[in-house]
Amino acid sequence: MGDPDPYPLFVDRRVYQGSSGRVYPIPFIDRVDTEGAPRQWQAIHLENRWIRLVVLPELGGRIHIGYDKTAEYDFFYRNNVIKPALVGLAGPWVSGGVEFNWPQHHRPATYLPVSTHIEQAPDGTVTVWCSDHDPFARMKGMHGIRLHPDRAAVELVVKLHNRTSESQTFLWWANVAARVHDNYQSFFPSDVHFVADHARRAITAFPHADRPYYGVDYPAMAKDGGDRLDWYKNIPVPTSYMVTATKEDFFGGYDHDAEAGFVHVADRHIAPGKKQWTWGNSPFGHAWDRLLTDGDGPYVELMAGVYTDNQPDFAWLEPGETKQFTQTWFPIQRIGPVDYASPEGAISIKILSADRVAIGVAVTFARPGSRIEIIASDEEILGVESDLVPGDAWTWTGSLPAGTEAADLEVRVTQGADIVLQRRPRVEGPATEPRTASAPPLPGDIQSNDELFWTGMHLHQYRHPTRSPLPYWEEAIRRDPGDARCRVALADVAYRRGEYLVAETHLRVGLERATALNGNPRDGEASYLLGMVLARTGRHDEAVDALAKAAWDGRWAAPAGVEIARLALQRGDRSVAIEKIDQVLASNPADARAVVIRAITLRKSGRTDDATRLVDHLLAADPLDHVARVLRDGEEAAGSLDGRTIMDVATDLSAAGETELALRLLEIAGRADVTPAGEVRPIAHYRRAQLLELLGDSHGAAAAREAAHLVPDALCFPAGLDDHDALQAALRADPDDERAQDLLAMLLFDRGRQAEALKLWREVIARPTASTRALRNAALAVYAVEGDLDAASGLYNRAIEAKPDGRLLFERDQLLERMAVSAEDRLSLLEPHRDIAFSRDDLTVEYTDLLVDVGRWEEALQVLQTRPFAPWEGGEGKVLGVWERIGLVRAEEAERSGDLTGALNAIATAVAVPPNIGEDRHPLADTTTLFGRWADLLERTGDLQQADEVRKRIRASTEVRPIGEDGTIDYFATSLPDLLLFPPK
């Protein structure tokens, strides 16, 4: 992958998997190399008699290889190279294996390392634990990849812990890749009658599509079975489909050539998500396959969602809450697609003819002395004994009573008195077509405040990219200023943005309504949030009062108790802290924050042995709890952590009164290496300065702030309330601190406080020491706040004059295009930086397009014929668009000179896509102009038959454009982030 972009990307309106594709504070990577090179990766290998796994900790803890030893078959797609393409949320992404996606799809840390721990049980079971703090909310996600010695299955144990003090949204999808070809079939349970696109914007029947889907007229292909979505070969375009309803817990895929496949099993009550995605079986999809692998061919993704059944579809994690669940995958052989599965194994039923059936049974444990019974209409048609073993499926082909259908059959596998597997006859009612989504009305068109509240909550919970929830809640309080729910919702947003006084105002108005008749409202959220605001603004006694009131509500009792205990420890009141934290642990023993607080309190009370036992107990349950590891081993335990995680640990410790250890950790973070996750050293020093100031050490605080000025700040993108408060503290100490101003401005701009950010950046860029980053960021802010295109352009000119850079050149050109500057003038500004321009794909595309505009198509053609490109998912067609345009211009020139053969050759060249472009024509792309010209020229040269064939290939565009003429962005479209830097005002 290329180097991270030194400029923060503010793209909260970018649409990604149907939700916001904002990437800040992760550095963005917008380039991948086009030549491979050897690279050694850390890998953890697990193997038993039946399965071999390879886990890659440096790539998000993904499973890279899942190999069925009995069938000699990769049941997960094996990619024999690590070949990133620009698909991920923050840029690089690799295909193959299993990617574990949370709290958003694709995993924000998919190309970042995780901490690992290998746990070995006495029975030989091995679990590889992988854990990280997510780059956005800093929640802790941990997955354990488990292999048992006596089981032919991969078990995944997941623990998602909200270690923050705020409610957070998340989704979880395990993204399993399977190598496909014309004879590979995905299978869902037989009661799946409908599937849906992202956000349910479209549905169709399954497995036979009964309507056009993704622009493809599947019913027209029904004659040859081309309407079946369960076969990869039938799907020509990039396509997702997700199960809308099922009463079964399984799904999977089967390779009919290899007679092998896999099954996924999870409790449907919490794990309803079942999805297939494909790039499509066409040259367009095959081009993406080539971008992602050197020779391992196409794949589909068979994704399994927990607490989610669609994308986007977010659930909630409350402060301190832990959600734990398991998922299971196991290979199957020789039995075909599955009709029933559990973690114990799978049963397949295939009706061969009116009176013949094939039954298959596969198990994950050895089951000697098993009995298999097949029953039809209460009549046993087979009962046999068999020693079932993994990897050697039991199969039977036999006769059926007349009129028996697959749904009528019961297959039962027992071992002694235990039922191992049982597939019961199904009684299904008529399939009900599910709803499809529609964009919500605008606030003024909604009648009730209740609907305004829930519409806003939907937009907020699903991280909607183009519609803010705020206008809905603001409309509600315009109609009814005391609307408590909307006041609390607005307060929550303001609080997360660091607008504490705004949040407090909303909360006090909401509480006045909620307590007007009842002093003890059922919902304690408003009091909890008020307590958090008061604590952040230094009013600790008032904060305790508000939090104590919130604790009257059982939902908020544990979160409030944690915060009260922290405040008590900060003032040295250990008796209150231990009382409150014991109450928390009685109701939420899984809250690692509370366990840590109790251990610290015991230690401070001199009960070091009790504290040690408590920490050891926590680490036995979670060996990658970094706060507990530091408590046990001291700051040396932070040596393997990234700087941001070290700061997370320091924050938890200082909140619980363990300030000396927290300060030592912040010193370590102040020396941490910069990583693709970003730079933290300046922020670590500012955080240390704030803590020293609170301890009364003004001299030490000043030295820490000076240290913040001496370390590099490239890729330092502050985020979160702790960074916000530390930078505000720095500016209170020194209002002219240029670095603190610049860093705080980035945080504020990302949080939607754009006018405040612009004010700070104007102070920064008024100094001769202003960085190109500050100049560029100020240009974005000028555009966003004031719409002053000329002023923004001038700031870009200053930045480029100081230090030419490909992103600066590209963004300035986008701005000039928005300003309707001529192609000649735009090109004249790029020409002095031609080499830099060609270092970026997007800028190269713009450059060559401008060359065509000014009649220099020969130069553009030379570039496109020789330079390799790597497109961004969602940005396909840009390079190809210039390529086709050059062909049309060449044909027009040849035609004007009377050279019809030359014109025909020019068009034929444009129709053929050179491999260095890295993509191919989308099957639904608009080919009217190019193919229409081709057909016309063929007719004029006398080739009527070929002209007729070409006209059959012409199709008008059915694609939705990401940005409409009114400046709005399609509700679900995927688009390049650069399109959104200068949206129409």
UniProtKB/TrEMBL annotation:
Source domain of life is: Bacteria
Sorted alphabetically, which keywords does the UniProt record give? Repeat, TPR repeat
Q: Where is this region: Disordered?
A: 424-444
Describe the location of the DUF5107 domain by residue ranges. 23-332
Q: Which Pfam families match?
A: DUF5107, TPR_10, TPR_16
| Protein's UniProt keywords contain Signal | no
Tell whether Repeat is among the UniProt keywords. Answer: yes
What InterPro entries does this protein map onto? CellSynth/LPSAsmb/PSIAsmb, DUF5107, TPR-like_helical_dom_sf
The name under which this protein is listed is DUF5107 domain-containing protein
**Which organism is this entry from?**
Microbacterium aurum
